[in-house]
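Write out this protein's structure.
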Amino acid sequence: MADSFVPKKPVIVTYPRVPDSHAEADLIAEFLKAKGFDAPYGSIYDEELRTRVKNNEFDVLIAVGGDGTMLRAGHLCAPCGVPILGINLGRLGFLIQIERGEWREMLERLFKGEAWIEYRMMLYVRHIRAGEMLGSWHALNEAVVSRGQNQRPVHLSASVDGRLLTSYVCDGLIASTATGSTAYALAAGGPILPPELRNILLVPIAPHLSVDRGVVLSEGSSVSIMVKGENTVLSVDGQAPMPLAEEDRVDIKAAEYTAQFVRFGDPGYFYRNLNAHMNTPRI
């Protein structure tokens, strides 16, 4: 396990669409104030707070909400190396270890040096048309090339490290991180990967007479998805889809930085958390 982590400059962010997140953040700020910390708090969309995070004024970001809040926090914090501690007010919380009624106890443990940092790979995604890059993004969960409003399947080909892997006729193709293996890729029937893996997972969505299994690429490999038809879109981490044209290419590889999450206990927390959310019997 990594060295313990004891922050000194916390900040608290909320996601406005999560009920009670701002009220909970107020309680957390009061708790931290009693411990001697002056922790500002506000919406994750607050530009002043976002600028201060990017300027490395804080050494931990406490995200109050659900998995969507953690995704947004990951996009904000990963480039500047600020660790994220999630407090779950949402429904699933695959990315979050702390539930609503536990944060007082866990913050006490945090400041006693009982936490550690988990590093999770992100993706770097580029949209290429006729050799020109039209856009680039980072993803914590996945990049998805899929059909748009058209009900017909899309035709795609996937190449790994410049070599053709296979062609697909499907509703879409997911390129996922290990983190994303418990998100859309899981719903599409893909395997669950341990969070520390730095492998890209490819999972087809509703394949038609195509390879119907997920493929785990070797660590360090990149994938290129070529669009072979019309009415195809690209979505990164569930954001608004962007239209793709025939012969467009989506290049995906490991990003140059990682998301950092504050964790407690042994790394087996991941399987216990997964077990609880998937309602399987405890052994």
